[in-house]
Specification:
Blueprint: E1 3-6, E2 8-11, E3 14-21, H1 37-66, H2 68-71, H3 73-81, H4 84-97, H5 101-117, H6 122-143, E4 157-161, H7 166-170, E5 177-182, H8 190-198, E6 202-204, E7 218-222, E8 227-230, H9 234-255, E9 262-263, E10 269-276, H10 281-287, E11 293-297, H11 311-325, E12 329-333, H12 360-366, H13 368-381, E13 386-391, H14 397-416, E14 426-431, H15 434-438, H16 440-443, E15 449-452, H17 454-462, H18 480-495, E16 499-502, H19 512-519, E17 523-526, H20 531-539, H21 543-554, H22 559-570
Parallel strand pairs: 3-4, 4-5, 5-6, 10-11, 10-17, 11-12, 12-13, 13-14, 14-15, 15-16, 16-17
Antiparallel strand pairs: 1-8, 2-6, 3-7, 7-8, 9-10
Helix pairs in contact: 1-3, 1-4, 1-6, 3-6, 4-5, 5-6, 11-13, 12-13, 13-14, 19-21
């Protein structure tokens, strides 16, 4: 009898193959005293040097197989191997305590990993996986134990593991690996991101039930629904084979929309853009038909290192993104750090409630040195593409005006230095705070666009931390209060001839899209993998009709009522009041 296991659908698709359990040996080194600490430090350095060569080879292989964008993750691994905060701390522990390199490596790396894993920001938690990956490779070389090589698999299989590191995922032999299932992880974990880049099915976060998957037994994974079926019956196998054929055909049909404009059924054109968190995401956005980058998170430039990025480093990254997307727009958000997104080297003070503290633009206006450096880099890169600059976490008009003033000052300095800049750069702001939403009419004359950050706007409006499971029921994207705020922002912008986008998860949600189209949203920015489905859906919707339906939804009393209304209306069962 088959058993059904539920996890998180991280990369879509259906796969049927034998399970290959990737043994995850948990090596816990014992503390040992040593006589010659200098020799032990040297042994550690040799292991680091071997690991550097190994990671460089993986990076080169990944670049050849997946392209330069996808291989950039391993630049981060090489940076970890050169990070004094980590490497020197291990060497000092060996020397000061006269202990073995294995124990020092485990203790120091584990302290970094635990710190990052405790943070609510998923990008920062992803850095913990990077350090774990790199530390595991160094440990293998210290112990003289070969690292598992998934490139040498020679039979069709579905990988089953506690987790897959970025280097594991990059080395998968796609001639034989049909997908993977992991015990831990989320949609934004590195393994999930790499799976979507490789376009193979992946289900993560399945929990301890993963141990119920029999080794070498045939399993079915439906990564569209996040389901794993163990010991499937003949009827179930036949059913999923048919589903897979249908799924494959649908992918082919969706791919035909890649280069199409996004038009509603009645000819209303909107823009579908991608959210990216690092440079390697750009190619995937292009591959999925993105009409621009609606949110370029710049935090990745500041993380996984021991000091602030230089102006030149930032300029190089922004220039690359702009040239890669040109002439399509790239909306780059200035630094959104602080709160739960910590940068250890900045030594920011601990706050009782970091989400309501000095973060994002508030921090940048206080630390103008780092803000001005970023603004200069952005301005210098502007001539290489279609740049739009966006300021996050604005509550009051004075913050916006101060940010614009600093931007203009840096612009004039660069002009005086003879630096060539773009003639016109649109400047906008995120709407994440209810105060900004209800004051949108005051902000609209001062900006070129609004971008609604729905994730934060929801939790600030509902006063509910979306990471807190006890109040997660209040995280309601299409509650009437949220829809009314969104309508007010769009109306305020249109009065001034400005456009409005959305860059939160809501923008790619199949229930929200019809309502947002009806409310008049101009730009929908989402994960790249959601773009083609969103384009297909919008093409089936009459914008004028949904304008009326959205107004009806605004009069409803609950999320449940609105959800049911949208479902009935999309299915053609419309009740006019």
């Amino acid at each position: 009898m088959s058993i059904s296991l539920k996890g998180i659908a991280a990369s879509p698709g259906i796969a049927i193959a034998r399970a290959y359990h990737l043994a995850a040996e948990r090596f816990l080194p014992v503390r040992q005293s040593i006589q010659d600490s200098a020799s032990e430090v040297e042994r550690f350095r040799q292991a680091v040097a071997i690991t550097q060569g190994e990671v460089e080879a993986i990076r080169a292989s990944a670049e050849e197989r997946l392209g330069a964008d996808k291989a950039e993750i391993f630049e981060g691994h090489l940076m970890i191997l050169e990070d004094p905060d980590l490497i020197e701390a291990i060497e000092l522990k060996i020397a000061d305590e006269a202990i073995n390199a294995e124990f020092a490596l485990h203790e120091v790396s584990q302290s970094f990993i635990e710190l990052l894993q405790s943070m609510s920001d998923e990008l920062l938690r992803g850095r913990a996986v990077d350090i774990e990956d790199v530390a595991g490779r160094i440990m293998s070389h210290l112990r003289g134990v070969p690292h598992v090589d998934l490139a040498n698999l020679a039979e069709e299989c579905i990988i089953v593991a506690r987790d897959l590191t970025p280097s594991d995922t990059a080395q998968l032999n796609l001639d034989f690996v049909r997908g993977f299932v992991t015990e831990v992880g989320s949609r934004t974990s590195h393994s999930a991101i790499m799976a979507r880049s490789l376009e193979i099915p992946a289900i993560v976060g399945i929990g301890p039930a993963i141990h119920d998957i029999p080794a070498h037994g045939v399993i079915v994974m439906d990564a569209n629904e996040g389901l794993v079926l163990t010991e499937p019956t003949a009827e179930e196998l036949a059913s999923y084979q048919a589903k897979k054929q249908k799924d494959d055909s649908r992918r082919v049909e969706l791919s035909k929309l890649k280069d199409k404009a996004t038009l509603s059924k009645d000819g209303k054109q909107v823009e579908l853009a991608a959210n990216i968190g690092k440079l390697e995401d750009i190619q995937r956005a292009i591959d999925n038909g993105a009409e621009g980058i609606g949110l370029f998170r710049t935090e990745f430039l500041y993380m996984g290192r021991s000091s602030l990025p230089t102006e030149e480093e930032q300029f190089t990254s922004y220039k690359y993104a702009l040239e890669k997307m040109n002439p399509k727009p790239v909306v780059i958000r200035t630094l959104d750090i602080g709160g739960d997104k910590e940068l250890p080297y900045m030594e920011l003070p601990k706050e009782t409630n970091p989400f309501l503290g000095q973060r994002a633009l508030r921090l940048c206006l206080d630390r103008q040195d780092l803000f001005r450096t970023q603004l200069r880099a952005l301005l210098r890169a502007s001539r290489f593409g279609n740049l739009k600059i966006m300021f996050p976490m604005i509550a009051v008009l004075e913050e916006l005006l101060e940010a614009k003033k600093l931007l203009e000052e840096e612009k004039q300095k660069l002009i005086a230095e003879g630096v060539q800049l773009a003639e016109h750069i649109e400047v906008g702001m995120m709407v994440e705070i209810p105060a900004a939403a209800v004051s949108a009419d005051l902000f609209a004359p001062e900006i070129d666009f609004f971008s609604i950050g729905s994730n934060d706007l929801i939790q600030y409006t509902m006063a509910a931390d979306r990471m807190n499971e006890t109040v997660s029921y209040l995280y309601q994207p299409w509650h009437p209060s949220l829809l009314r705020l969104i309508r007010f922002v769009i109306q305020a912008a249109e009065k001034e001839g400005k456009w409005v986008g959305m860059c939160g998860e809501m923008a790619g949600d199949q229930t929200a899209i019809p309502l947002l189209l009806g409310l008049g949203l101009h730009e929908f920015s989402m994960s790249a993998g959601s773009i083609l489905q969103a384009r297909e859906l919008i093409g089936q919707l009459d914008q004028a009709e949904w304008s009326g339906y959205a107004n009806q939804a605004l009069t409803m009393r609950s999320t449940q009522e609105i959800t049911q209304f949208v479902e009935r209306t999309r299915n053609g069962v419309v009740h006019h009041d």
